[in-house]
Specification:
Layout: H1 2-31, E1 51-53, H2 60-81, H3 90-103, E2 110-114, H4 120-129, E3 134-139, E4 150-152, E5 166-171, H5 180-189, E6 191-201, E7 216-218, H6 223-231, E8 235-241, E9 252-258
Parallel strand pairs: 2-3, 2-5, 3-4, 5-6
Antiparallel strand pairs: 1-7, 6-9, 8-9
Helix pairs in contact: 3-4
């Protein structure tokens, strides 16, 4: 029996390196997949380990130029081919308007859409919230300045005359931020007390999607913890909602409200 026991121990010792290698390969594959979310509970991970931020820009100007080129190309399609270039869709905007109306009783609601590109988002919010509402889009690329209710600005550095003025801020473009904490902090400043911050998020916003054009990647399961970790003094998490027609099983609307 001792001989069998020694053979088994030898087998385990020989196989251990292969087992570890396979575990590491499997973890890497899963972690970079669009279909899985992996937490390594044995690691000493911090919150910052669970999002990815592309940081290989030469400088701020390179980041701006990449964003402008991308938006300019898509606006050309919007204008010349009359095609929607909105990442979300009308159904999702309507769902968000229903959420806003559930939190706000006013007949006149003011809002900002961050990273609005073609202006379709603010137009749909205005449609579903009603004629008394006023919703603006914030877009970096100056080609969008002719679009209705569009403010040309970098959503990381918004003009102070927007601060404290809005009932809600909506975005599905937080993945386009080179510094999400800076950007979301600026969006919060635009809200009135008890105003709503709404982030629409799905699996395509995850770590595997982070790149030069969309530098911020975080999984749906981590996003609310990340935002509250940054802004627990400024925000309350009001709710996590599912769209009526989700894009994938990680498609959510995160609704936060601004504290005093």
């Amino acid at each position: 029996m001792r001989g069998v026991h020694r053979i088994n121990k030898l087998k385990i010792a020989c196989l251990k390196p292969f087992q570890v290698a396979l575990e590491n390969i499997g973890l890497a594959l899963l972690n970079n997949s669009k279909y899985f979310f992996v937490l390594n509970l044995r690691s000493k991970s911090t919150q910052n380990d669970y999002f990815r931020l592309f940081s290989s820009y030469e400088d701020y100007e390179e980041y701006l130029e990449i964003q402008r080129i991308k938006t300019k190309r898509r606006l050309k399609v919007f204008h010349e081919e009359s095609k929607s270039i909105m990442w979300t869709n009308q159904n999702n905007i309507k769902d968000n308007c229903n959420l806003i109306n559930g939190y706000r009783s006013s007949a006149s609601i003011s809002g900002l859409c961050m990273g609005s590109r073609s202006g379709e988002e603010q137009a749909l919010f205005h449609k579903f919230l009603g004629g008394g509402s006023k919703v603006f889009g914030v877009e970096l690329q100056s080609d969008a300045k002719s679009l209705p209710n569009t403010i040309i600005a970098d959503f990381h550095y918004l003009p102070q005359n927007l601060f404290g003025k809005f009932d809600f801020v909506y975005s599905n473009s937080h993945d386009q931020s080179f510094n999400p904490k800076l950007a979301i902090g600026c969006w919060i400043k635009c809200l009135k007390v008890d105003g709503l911050l709404i982030l629409e998020h799905c699996r395509s916003h995850g770590k595997s999607g982070a790149n030069r054009q969309d530098p911020f990647g975080v999984e749906t399961e981590i996003l609310p913890f990340l935002v509250m970790g940054w802004f627990s003094a400024n925000l309350r998490l009001e709710g996590i909602y599912e769209p009526s027609k989700p894009f994938d099983n990680a498609h959510k609307f995160f609704v936060f409200s601004k504290k005093m």
